[in-house]
Amino acid sequence: DKTEVLVAVYAPTEVKRSRERTDAATIEVIVRPRAGLPGPVERELEQLLISTLEPCLITALHPRTAVSIVVQITHDDGGLLSAALNGTCVALMHAGVPMRGMLTGCCIALMPSGDALLDPTLEEQQAAEAVVTYGIELRQRADDSQATERRLLLSRVQGRISQTNYDLCLHAAQDAGACLAAF
């Protein structure tokens, strides 16, 4: 798809005293739409990104500071949350923010025909029975440097999906995330 986001990370920065945490850095996310003012969709994306990033970032290294992330939506053609997750991970790595592993986002649409589409367009998402977005953390295992541990940090389901199809989509998302991380 042609979904595009521009992500900027500022860290560590000064945090407002009311949001300051004495034991760790505060994660702040602002999602800006292509045009106009942020609405409920952007607020939901902000909360999903914060809850997904909290277990992934090593915030204890910079207490009483903030990790500020700004996600600017430049074009939305489906898979916006997964694009925001992937863009945020790359921006965090570029900014040198300490992370426990690499975060990957993956969107899968389950079509009425039974097909599962990886990285669907907005049109495909609208025609789908269910759309599932996963946020998966990949990190090297401590006991085996060649093995990768996969940890599910986010699962957002829109529509109805059976447990069997959910598990198949999760496995496909984990494989896609591993390919993305290898890239």
Automatic annotation (TrEMBL):
Record bears the keyword Nucleus: yes
Pfam families named among the record's database cross-references: RNase_PH
Residue span, Exoribonuclease phosphorolytic domain: 2-98
MF-aspect GO terms: RNA binding
A Gene Ontology term for the protein's cellular component: nuclear exosome (RNase complex)
A biological-process GO annotation: rRNA catabolic process
Keyword match Nucleus: yes
Keywords, ordered alphabetically: Exosome, Nucleus, rRNA processing
SUPFAM superfamilies: Ribonuclease PH domain 2-like (SSF55666), Ribosomal protein S5 domain 2-like (SSF54211)
Places the protein is found: Nucleus
Gene3D superfamilies attached to this UniProt entry: GHMP Kinase, N-terminal domain
Family of this protein: Belongs to the RNase PH family.
Protein name per UniProt: Exoribonuclease phosphorolytic domain-containing protein
